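--- STAGE predict ---
source: upstream dedup step, 1 unique chain passed
mode: sequence only
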Amino acid sequence: MPHDATASPSDASAMPPFAADSDTNEETTTTTAEREQVRMQQLLVDQRAAFAITPMPSAEVRRSWLAALRDALKHHEAALIAAISADFGHRSAHETRLAEMVPSFEGIRHARSHLKGWMKPSKRHVSAAFQPASARVVYQPLGVVGIIVPWNYPLYLALGPLITALSAGNRVMIKMSEFTPATAAALRTMLADAFDEIQVAVVTGEADVAAAFSALPFDHLLFTGSTAVGKHVMRAAAENLTPVTLELGGKSPVIMSRELMADETQRREAASRLAFGKGMNAGQTCVAPDYVLCADDQVDDLVHALGDSFKRFYPHFAETADYSCIINQRQYDRLCEALNDALAKGATVIPLVAGPGWDDPALVEKRLMPPMALLNVTDDMRVMQDEIFGPLLPIVGLPAIENASAEAMKSKLLEGSADELAAAMAYVNARPRPLALYYFGYDKAQQQRVTEGTHAGGMCLNDTLLHVAQDDMPFGGIGPSGMGHYHGKEGFLTLSKAKGVFAKGRLNGAKLMYPPYADGVAGRAIHGLIRRLLMR
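--- STAGE serialize ---
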């Protein structure tokens, strides 16, 4: 998700040097942090002891855990929605239901429906050399799983991994972000209705608590947050050889095909889908569209279509209840600094909603930043270097290949490119691999080119964001955008130990291979047969 200390959009529970600003008395904070660190160490001991008593919960037990989580989520829906809105300054209740509640319920439903199949041991082939025998893979729980949650979707990014961990039969400790204290308290209350703390526990605290949490000897640690903080987490986990799943982020690109952009109906529909993905949570989403690659002569058409879509979504932007505030002043200031940096270096800002400008005092006071397109962007601007994590949308114009000058053909955008799509793909591939990539265009051959010719954690064709909500697909990054997967079966496998079991009966054909080797006629014959049949 985020990228560095000074511009850390979605640091989960940030670690040094990512300490949160706080007005709390230092002595009180230290005492509270120390108590929480002692508490979480004891929680780990208690959860390990409980796991040792029941190391292989049945499918029925795991399904009951998921049912308890579902019922608690239903019961606490209103409190959780109110808490999230309080942490953000305002977030639409409808948006929280769509982006956090619905995928959580869907994840529970999917896991309960498929759990028995996931748990079923898989039979494996045994070579003729080792017959008679059987082989199978048994999927065992790992033990205690740690989950570090970011602030941008504090409910779903806690419950999604939790659903996966419970499905795999584990016990869980969850570290919530210090930037969402109301949600952390509401989640702790909700989970206490469903589980004892030796099954699922919530830990809170500032950056020092997060650092101590990541250093605990978990059986697996799942972190959602920035690449920079992810390195700290991985380094701390390495001291215990704790395996990690890192869900990070990056600059998720959008590629617009020339053919789609030339069709007004398709262009308007694509703009609506793109605007929805960027507008959700005011762009504070790890897989939000970060920048757009579009043919240079079609940029104006795209900006116009995006403006129409955003104005339709938020017709009275300054008064709308459907748009989220920026989470806190630190993140709002970061976005303003990135925007001013782009302006100072020659970018053009195009408002995409009607109403007062982005620097209007009333909007600034509420940390309400309207969606804006940025044109004439260059690589030396922050918005083209760092993950934006907000409602700014740079649009990079690609010169038409057939009309490009010799100088343009030598540029980074077009060098060696056969067509605009090749240029767009080269642009993406020259940068760190993102968490998501979006391609808008209906030509199947072009879709295949983009799918096979680029790397990203996940991908949508003709939409944004929604691949994350598909429970039957893995979700995870690649390279600097993360490692490992969760969701669905792949998540179950991530948080299980696939243990190979080789079994033999009373008859032992392998004894023919025992020493002394090639002793006598029979021994030489047997080893000659082994060479002819098994060493081909």
